[in-house]
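#onboarding

Welcome to the new folks! Below is a worked example of what a typical request in this channel looks like: someone posts a single protein sequence, and someone else replies with the predicted structure as tokens. Don't worry about understanding the tokens yet, we'll cover that in week two.

Example request:
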Amino acid sequence: MSSPLPQAPFSTAPVDPSAPILLFDSGVGGLTVLGELRKVLPQAPVIYAADMAGLPYGTKTEAQVTARVAGLLGRMTERFAPRLVCIACNTASTIALGMVREVLEVPVVGTVPAIKPAAAMTRSGVIGLLGTQATIRQAYVDRLEHEFAGDKRLLRYGGPGLVEAAEAKLRGERVDPAAVIRAAEALRAMPGGENIDTVVLACTHFPLLEDELAEAFGPGVRFVHGAEGIARRIAHLTEGQEYARQQPDRALFTGPGEFPGAYGEALARYGLPEGGRF
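Example response:
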């Protein structure tokens, strides 16, 4: 789901057909957004940026996240001249989206918890929300709950270890079920939690763990996230623009370590055959 926050209009000058869409996340969770974007805009050149040096965002302060995200996206926009920036990270969006839109002169699409569609889906009226610790405490989420789920019960849990489990799964490693089971049990243990029938995956990493989460929650629970809506929003904002992929799409990483390294196979599946550092 894209953010409802307004953004100033942009120039109507023709867009360079080779200008990429820049997808940014704290790690590789934003690949779930890229997967949906490929379905609607397969011809669009893409740069995927993963701030591995800053991972995880969920344990950082709001000031730390805002400064880091705005600074990195400012430099990346200057260097790569994207036609649009997507912050494919719920934590970064709920905290820093307003600041980023103030400093960048290109359209910016954010990612916020899919509370609105969850409210329409639930039959029991009890919704679970799984996010990072930073996301679930944001006033932004309070506003979404008030606007779209005021007559529902929204139970929130910041799942420690889930981001790391998703990253491990994408590297092809075994997922330790402990973090997944703990998240399901924590939501179920809250007042009314036994009636949860819909769970919002409020982190782009978490759809990577949907099979494991479904097993932990048991039958009768549906999961919802915003990747499809984000992809549609990007397609709408770039409607009518021309695309010309002049070089392979690529993934860029911050921080130490060998990249793409263990992520190489997964990145190739998402159409990112080249990787490097930023």
